[in-house]
Amino acid sequence: VFRCWILYAKSWRVICVPVTFWLASVACSVLESYYAGLYYKGQSHEAVLIAMKATTGLYACNIAITVYTTAAIIYRILSSRRNSGGIHKRLNNAMRILVESGVLYTSMIIFGLVGVMLDARNNSTWVESLIVSISDAMAFSMGGISFNLILIRVYQSRVESRDSFADSSHDYGLPGNSFNNSRITPSSEEPSSNELDETRAL
């Protein structure tokens, strides 16, 4: 959401939708924590169903935020690429990095959502409980992994562009001793003594 806000010149109109989903995800997270606590204390047996619904809403909001912001950033990059001149390769690399991280994070969130929906059924078995535990752990850790992946790929692209520029400069540069062989010294341009004698004789 922050990257989308920066790319669109800090326009609040663009990020009003993801901010709304983010507030809804915070509310779902609070509800899930509250009713899960009631269930573990044994105060309410229906609290687990409400907690599952809140978790489902949390995953759905995260999916909506990721899809919206990633699509908005890619659209902004595509719009800028038409007037970018000769930096298409850099913009394409940025789009590829964002798409890879966004797809990776969104797929894990969808996997977590499927696990929660399977576990929310009345006749769920230990298999569904195992799936929701694994998917929840993977979805929780994938946020940091996708963010670090963006940082690593951006730094890698910068290093590759720097190395390619250094290689091109080395290829087009001239060796240092190429000027030594063809250097003309003042003494070599002076006429010899025989030439001076012939000139005086004329």
UniProtKB/TrEMBL annotation:
<protein>
    <recommendedName>
        <fullName>Transmembrane protein</fullName>
    </recommendedName>
</protein>
<feature type="compositionally biased region" description="Polar residues">
    <location>
        <begin position="177"/>
        <end position="194"/>
    </location>
</feature>
<feature type="transmembrane region" description="Helical">
    <location>
        <begin position="98"/>
        <end position="118"/>
    </location>
</feature>
<feature type="transmembrane region" description="Helical">
    <location>
        <begin position="12"/>
        <end position="36"/>
    </location>
</feature>
<keyword id="KW-0472">Membrane</keyword>
<feature type="transmembrane region" description="Helical">
    <location>
        <begin position="56"/>
        <end position="78"/>
    </location>
</feature>
<feature type="transmembrane region" description="Helical">
    <location>
        <begin position="130"/>
        <end position="152"/>
    </location>
</feature>
<keyword id="KW-1133">Transmembrane helix</keyword>
<keyword id="KW-0812">Transmembrane</keyword>
<feature type="region of interest" description="Disordered">
    <location>
        <begin position="176"/>
        <end position="202"/>
    </location>
</feature>
